[in-house]
Automatic annotation (TrEMBL):
It comes from Muricoccus roseus. A divalent metal cation binds at E71, N216, D267. Residues 1-26 form the signal peptide. This is Gluconolactonase. The active site is at D267 (proton donor/acceptor). One of its GO terms (molecular function) is metal ion binding. Its cofactor is Zn(2+).
Length: 363
């Protein structure tokens, strides 16, 4: 290949652009220092049953920062790295366990939100605005569109995604990515409902759940006989619903498993091998009905303090809160990773955090 001055300048410009992105990320950082004492007080035991999952000499670490809204972590054991979305910056980031680097993996990324690794080690992604589709990144880097419409109408804004052991892909389709200009572009939804979809390996797309208002995070129980789904705009609070999964891929027996407090927000989550739900948690933005005087102003304050709510809430299979991992930022999503599958990665507002635990992801 012949190298030209124009090519060198173009390459230098691309390198500078990536450096500017990561440099901007560093500039947005705020001081974070891991706790120096063991056990880390950020890991709170709400029920004695959670004690077995805490590693006494493990502490919360900040691995990277500078994102505007971090989402969709997915771990790839073959390469020892994690990918996550930075939605407003329209990019996917990569954390490499081998050297600790935190770099741009893809930009632009079509406002990617949820990501997952399929059973063949490929990246599947929810592009939740503009393109509004689910894609798969092949081993050669090419991108295959798996779904972008249902019954002749465009999807709303694919959000979170999980791959079942039979290679079916399940994803939620709320309207978040088309509600405004922050995480993409405002658009009119074409679907009459906000659904949970099941996509078979042969390309058949089915709406398996149509009666949840803006479904968000989803995950299967360890035996895959139950599907759990967050209802983002539940009444009166955000909830996690449990469904029985039938052999034909349909679901039934809708049961409310978890009801968030009136100030809490349930988001993305994962299930461990014991069936516990590790859920991204934080303030839902609800305001007190009456204002309080702050200085010389009357201000409607949040119900509950974000500093008390931000982190990961752990529920047992019966929906009882048993543990809490306090973070300095609201956690939107998480996944298990690491060489032994016991490193909890948490995408939290501007940053990526991690904590080693005595738990392993179910899938």
């Amino acid at each position: 290949m012949t190298t030209t001055r124009r090519g060198l300048l173009r390459a230098a410009g691309a390198t500078a652009s990536m450096a500017a992105l990561t440099g901007a990320a560093a500039a947005q950082s705020f001081p974070f220092a891991p706790n120096q004492r063991y056990p880390d007080p950020a890991v709170q035991i709400l029920d004695p049953s959670f004690a077995r999952y805490r590693i006494y000499s493990s502490t919360v670490e900040q691995l990277g920062t500078g994102m505007r809204w971090a989402e969709g972590p997915a771990y790839f054991p073959e390469g020892g790295y994690l990918l996550c979305s930075d939605i407003p910056n329209n990019r996917i980031m990569k954390y490499d366990e081998k050297d600790g680097s935190f770099t741009v993996f893809r930009h632009p990324a079509n406002y990617a939100n949820g990501n997952a690794r399929d059973r063949q080690g490929r990246l599947v992604t929810c592009e939740h605005s503009v393109t509004r589709r689910v894609t798969r990144t092949e081993k050669d880097g090419s991108i295959t569109v798996l779904a972008d419409s249902f019954e002749g109408k465009r999807l709303n804004a694919p959000n979170d995604i999980v791959v079942k052991s039979d290679d079916t892909i399940w994803f939620t389709d709320p309207t978040f990515g088309i509600n405004g200009e922050w995480e993409g572009s405002r658009a009119r939804p074409e679907q009459a409902t906000t659904n949970v979809y099941r996509l078979t390996p042969d390309g058949k797309l089915t709406a398996v759940i149509t009666d949840i208002l803006n479904p968000n995070g989803l995950a299967f129980s360890p035996d895959e006989r139950k599907l759990y789904v967050v209802e983002w705009r539940g009444t009166p609070n955000r909830s996690i619903w449990s469904f029985d999964v039938n052999n034909d891929g349909t679901v039934g027996n809708k049961t409310k498993l978890i009801d968030a407090a009136d100030q809490g927000a349930l988001d993305g989550f994962r299930v461990d091998r014991d069936g516990n739900l590790w859920v991204g948690y934080g303030s839902n933005g609800a305001l007190e009905a009456e204002p309080a005087r702050i200085g010389n102003r009357m201000v409607h304050q949040l119900r509950g303090k974000p500093e008390d709510l931000d982190g990961v809430m752990v529920f047992n299979p019966q929906g009882k809160p048993i543990g809490f991992i306090r973070l300095p930022e609201r956690c939107a999503n998480l996944c298990f990773g690491g060489p032994k599958g016991n490193r909890l990665y948490m995408t939290s507002s501007h940053s990526l955090y991690a904590l080693y635990v005595e738990a392993h992801g179910a899938v």
